[in-house]
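[Automated response] Your request has been received and processed.

Submitted sequence:
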Amino acid sequence: MSPPRVALTLEGPVAHVVLARPEARNALDGAMVRELRETIAAVSGRDDVRVVVLSGRGPAFCAGADLTWMREVAGFTREENLADARGLLDLFETIDRSPKAVVAAVQGAALGGGAGLLAVADVVVAAEDARIGFTEARLGLVPAVISPYVLRKIGFAAARELFLTGERVTAKRAAALGLVQRVVPPAELDAAVDLCVGELLQAAPGAIAAAKALLRGVAGRPVESVSDLVCQTLADRRGSAEARDGVLAFLEKRKPGWAR
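Generated structure:
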């Protein structure tokens, strides 16, 4: 039996999910995709977890698809390839739809599907020397499964360029495109992630889940088509126990019950 490809550590309300194939630069193969999907699904269902930190062990975050695995799937039937693609899509959907705040900590390379993981994270903190790219075209492939999430993050024009060229861009440029939110010196990556986690723990967990669902519901749609959704969301949150505690805590100059 092969060793686990994904490691999980729980530190209070924070789940650290670590891609654990440093010898392969944390490249994604079928087993890692399944393990990562199952791990994210499990922590997303835990009431005691509020933030998920996704990182990679070793010098790279995730180098994309494992080429040994890609050599194997080249012999798949079309039906087998469709099933594998749906499994990969399910991984990204599981992360994207997690009710928890998801922070990606990025060092080294984040390529192909690894860059796709950044597109489904809520906050991406990257080291200045990180390199990010949608390199599939250079292998004769296309970033098909991750394309909806990437387009939502960086827009059509940038995706058009990067999907076609396969260029690896700096963390600074990825931040300008909206794929990365914070860029820091490599030595400060862990501290910057901790700071981000601390900020997220000041927000109510139910409000975070509701905000993520709201964003998915309103993105790209005209106001008139989402009017019921936004009004219902506001009414529901105003009536929630979290909101009552939050407002009262503000007036009483104390921390609400969820704040760390």
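Summary generated for your ticket: The chain has two domains: 6-200, 205-251. DSSP finds eleven helices and nine strands in the chain.
If you did not submit this request, please reply to this message.
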